[in-house]
Amino acid sequence: MADHRKTSILIIYTGGTIGMVQDQETGTLKPFRFDNILEEVPELKKFGFNLSSFAFNPPLDSSNINQDAWIKVAEIIEQNYQGFDGFIVLHGTDTMAYSASALSFMLENLAKPVIFTGSQLPIGSLRTDAKENLISSLEIAAALKNGEPVVPEVGIFFENSLYRGNRTSKNNTEDFNAFISGNYPPLAESGVHIRYNHSVIRNPEKSLPFVVHKRLGNDLTIVKLFPGISRAAVESAFSIPGLQALILETFGAGNAPEEDWFIGCVNRAILRGLVVINVTQCKTGSVEMGMYETSRRLADAGVISGHDITTEAAVTKLMYLTGVSHDREWISGQLAISLRGEMTI
Ligand code: ASP
Fold first, then answer.
1. Would the CB of 181 count as within 6 Å of ligand 1?
2. pLDDT digits (tens, 9 = 90+) for 122-158
3. Is the shortest distance between the CB of 122 and ligand 1 below 6 Å?
4. Which domains are assigned to the chain?
5. pTM over 0.90
């Protein structure tokens, strides 16, 4: 029977390296037993929290994550929202930035911490970064100030930084410090103490109800520009049947070739009803449409500025928006504003 005076945290294990331990006999990596988490990681007992867990079966390598998995995580959080103070989502690093971004849009008016973490080395290996990531994430998910959660947001904790989930990208396949948040400061940093950057943490509007969005569209694509991209490649992407939205990954501050065939293709697609958003290929900095002639023509064609949004946040914001409505005017209006702190305008 749970002790209700204690902080309660629900750990959702979706898969990924963090949940692996070495089989004593064969030496191979096998999934860790999350129903027995306190036995596997005895350090967690020191918190004195009520810890519960839910493990995906089978665990997913995060390259296999899709909308169904995000909906499942959102449903688990929805069903357990009242009973827990915070949520930890253990996830492979490869697509963690997409998943954290997706959940940030799906969980509207979130007022409790949802902290994603993972690790570069399995929890059962000697030099693992998993225990530290899990232990710090638990401390963050449980942190209160004046009785309220300190981080009522979807975040990613990795190495020693807590980032806003929808501001992150995986940046390194090797280092323990695997993520960057190029356009937004860390929400917290851990050293001897966990230091919160309170002024950049979002606070929920308490009068608004928690709403979980479980419909996600996927009639969208990305065109990543490169010098010399062929007309055939661009035109075929813009004419995918049923396409509702296209992310144009542009150069620098939002620039693209000025050739007539290119601008003509963008123009025709927008006139047909396609939503086109301009997202920079740079990890830091913002799209500034009209700064150069090469982006002014996109603005004239009706391309929407993605400002400093990450590709991960743009993809998942569009999945969320197109899941809610097919109304192009509404989608365009929502893209132009920051819904969950994903853009600086
Ligand atoms: N391929 C693994 C995954 O993303 C790597 C990791 O866990 O970091 O699931």
1. no
2. 888 889 999 999 999 999 999 999 999 999 999 999 9
3. no
4. 8-212 (3.40.50.1170), 220-335 (3.40.50.40)
5. yes
